[in-house]
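Model it.
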Amino acid sequence: MPNRPAYCPSSRAASKRSRKIPCGRIALLCLFLCLLLHPAGPALAERPCLTVGVERIDYPPYGSFRQGGYEGFARDLLDSFAIEHGYTMVYVALPVKRLYQEFLDTRTLDLKFPDCEEWNRSRRKGIKIFYSVPVCEYTDGILVKPENLGKGMEAIKTLGVIAGLKPWLLVPPVDKNAMKVSENVSVSGLLGKGIRDRVDGVYTNLMVASHLLKDMGYKDKLVFDPDLPHATGHYHLSTIDHPLILREFDEFMKTRTELVDSIRRKHGIDR
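Modeled.
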């Protein structure tokens, strides 16, 4: 039988407090917030509180932690859903490897975003995970310096990737033994490695790379090579313990298309 979500007051301070919760204590987060935060009134105090696991990386326009809070497309979309259905979302930002542990193993998170059934299949084996309807499309690919465009995978001796993410879903598949992988905890750090020739290519989301290169003042210093392997799919919201909440979210996505599309347009995200 699915677990019931905890109850806590609505506050953006929740996402700030959730950033440094020690391992094994995330499950106490909502109760902790209830004791510390002053509810705005009885109605708010009784709103179910849902913990949402998100990746602790700067990933615009999908989601980023800036000025101490979680913001971006995912925040606006999930908060809009929560308001309409009477939930309070608490965003728990974790490194990718830790996020999988908390979601799949210790089960301290109610929801996870983004997620995809194809990611890290070996970690999901034997676990019943529920996925929402597609939220938005993504393309992950390899960016190289303009002068290296079209040189093929033979020129990629070292590939930069986010720590915890692996490029083995690329199509066509890449040979794990044909190159080295250099990890970094941030996309901007990876892009910097590519610009400084510390890696031959950077594997990341194309829209995220475009946003960050522009912010860094390095627009067009790295470009997507469409002839190299890449992966296209959809981001989903996922859960293990709350399939009924996911069903509500699916209904929200289907019936509130104008609102959802306006949020997509605000962040420059296509379907």
